[in-house]
Specification:
By secondary structure, this protein is α/β, with parallel strands linked by helices. Helix content is 35%, strand content 17%. It contains eight helices and ten strands.
Length: 263
């Protein structure tokens, strides 16, 4: 059983909301109050009185009880840690990434999926960093399917161990009601596959890849503007987003003339 024992109002409500959202059984106690039978984990703040001293040293948990100390900003992490303890300790934190314009991201602790996301490519690295910030030895596994976006992620994640994974067959069949979940489910499968350790990756974009970036710039622009190949290469390298490339093109070349394109 999980016990929430804190006088921190924000921490209390954030943790309780997280536990309810996950359908996890829990109870509450005043800080320092005797813990109920069957307690496995106590969630509290650093300023709360730990235990009542009944058979324990002040500040030390009773035998068989573990403590998770957190702030309100760490409520989700605290609940994930507490649930992992209930399930037998979890394991290494592994992040699977199905790269693309909107990568699917799945965070696993052992065999348990603790969180999942699908975000714009520009937000992917920050999302991954946030999810592994408190993990002791995290690993990020990135699929090899979207070469340009995958390489950008590999090069930006220089503070964490990264593996590149053969993502063949990782996207499952999606039945009724599962539309839009493919990238996230693929990320789960990628997280569970061993890959090759990699520090950086340089990929020369093909003519077709550059053309797709240029076509995307035309679709995203309000004035039918198409960026040139030089800017498309900078987008491919992760130096610019398409919107930033369009702004650079607009500032450099002025108002758009019909379908004018500078190569």
């Amino acid at each position: 059983m999980i016990v929430v024992a804190t006088d921190d109002f924000e921490l209390y409500h954030d943790v309780v909301d997280e536990l309810r959202d996950r359908g996890v059984a829990f109870t509450t106690r005043e800080p320092g109050e005797e813990l109920p039978e069957g307690t496995r984990v106590v969630i509290r703040s650093s300023t709360d009185e730990a235990f009542d001293g009944a058979g324990t040293t002040a500040g030390s948990p009773p035998a068989g009880v573990e403590t998770v100390v957190a702030t309100a900003e760490e409520a989700r992490r605290a609940v994930e840690e507490a649930v992992a303890i209930l399930r037998g300790g979890g394991g290494r934190t592994v992040v699977g990434v199905d790269p693309g314009v909107r990568p699917g991201i799945a965070v696993l602790n052992g065999e348990t999926i603790v969180s999942a996301f699908q975000v714009p490519l520009a937000d992917a690295v920050e999302t991954i960093r946030r999810e592994v910030a408190d993990a002791p030895d995290p690993l990020v596994r990135i699929g090899d399917g979207a070469r340009l976006q995958g390489s950008q992620l590999i090069n930006d994640l220089d503070e964490v161990a990264v593996e590149i994974v053969d993502e063949t067959g990782t996207t499952p069949y999606l039945g009724t009601g599962a539309r839009g979940m493919g990238d996230v489910l693929a990320a789960v499968n990628i997280a569970r596959l061993s890959g090759e350790a990699i520090d950086s990756r340089t990929v020369e974009p093909t003519a077709g890849e550059l053309q797709r970036i240029k076509d995307r710039s035309r679709r995203q622009s309000a004035d039918g503007r198409t960026i040139d190949e030089g800017l498309a290469r900078r987008v491919a390298a992760g130096e610019l987003t398409v919107d930033e490339a369009l702004e650079t093109h607009r500032a450099r070349d002025g108002p758009n003339d019909a379908d004018r394109e500078v190569d």
